[in-house]
Design goal:
single chain, 80 residues, 2 helices, elongated, transmembrane helix, cytoplasmic vesicle
Length: 80
């Protein structure tokens, strides 16, 4: 159970830091090529990439959860 909680906490922290880091990188022109865009395009691109980063984190979390559950074959009920 602690492994599940640890994965959830890590995914939650990354879900908060990834979009903030993306927007910070565009705002302070840390990401290459961001300085060549107009300010409105920088804002639009940073928000778009922040949403994409959140969706990627959710996707990775779902993949980790799917791998975690054991595969069980359904067996017929012997009492019938």
């Amino acid at each position: 159970m602690s492994g599940v909680l640890a994965k959830f906490v890590v995914a939650s922290v990354v879900m908060w830091t990834a979009p903030v880091a993306t927007m910070y990188g565009f705002y302070y022109q840390i990401i290459p090529g961001a300085s060549q865009l107009s300010s409105s395009m920088q804002t639009l691109a940073s928000r778009f990439l922040a949403v994409i980063s959140i969706n990627l984190v959710i996707g990775f979390y779902i993949c980790m959860a799917m791998k975690e559950t054991p595969h069980q074959d359904l067996e017929p009920d012997p009492s019938e």
